[in-house]
Write a structure and sequence with these properties.
2 domains, three-stranded parallel β-sheet, 5 helices, 3 strands
Length: about 200
């Protein structure tokens, strides 16, 4: 039974509902009294086989449910915050790795071209080589360069793809730092540059 009149006082007294219950052979009844003020005498809730809810009861139940849900919300927010930070760090590391690989490639290209230029300048007899022969020498130098850089490039990509559970995501991966050091590439770009690029 649902009651929601605009009466100024209860319209169903305890005596009245006791008679109703006897007529119903005391079968189970659920009453939702959502009127303000109440339509049912609050003492009716004490009768056997009668469950009476009013607006205050429903509000209390809603607040209890909210508190119960809130207990699950706070841990969920911590998980979201942690995973968001890890995702952002991963994106930042990927960006740093991409810039490092580009810098490594440009560095190697410059060395290769410089050495080719020196080779042809130091040996005048090579000046008469056909264009196809000069291209073959340049192609061989390029292949050597790619073979030398294959493992460093693979190591950088692997380190960023799977940094490991113990890696501090707030710091550059050690492999990236090692490649920079070994190839003399200098310091990485400032962190705020990476944030702008992202």
């Amino acid at each position: 039974m649902i009651s929601t009149t605009a009466a100024a006082e209860p319209i169903v007294t305890l005596d009245q509902y006791q008679r109703v219950q006897r007529a119903r052979r005391n079968r189970l009844s659920l009453i939702l009294d959502i009127a303000i003020p109440r339509d049912f005498d609050p003492r009716i809730a004490d009768l056997d086989q009668v469950t009476l809810y009013n607006v205050d009861d429903l509000r209390a139940q809603a607040e209890q449910n909210l508190r119960r849900r809130q207990k699950g919300v706070d841990p969920a927010l911590l998980i979201i915050e942690r995973e968001t930070a890890a995702c952002y760090a991963q994106l930042r590391h990927q960006q740093a790795a991409g810039m490092l690989l580009q810098q490594l490639g440009s560095h190697a290209d410059a060395i290769r071209q410089r050495e080719l230029d020196r080779l042809f300048a130091a040996h005048p007899e090579l000046a008469g080589l056909a264009e196809a022969d000069r291209d073959a020498i340049a192609h061989m130098a390029s292949r050597l360069q790619n073979q030398f850089l294959h493992h460093p490039r693979a190591a950088v990509r692997s380190a960023v793809a799977d940094p490991g559970p113990h890696h501090d995501h707030t710091q550059p991966h050690p492999v990236l730092s090692a490649v920079r050091h070994l190839f003399g590439l200098g310091a990485p770009p400032p962190k705020n540059t990476l944030k702008k690029l992202l």
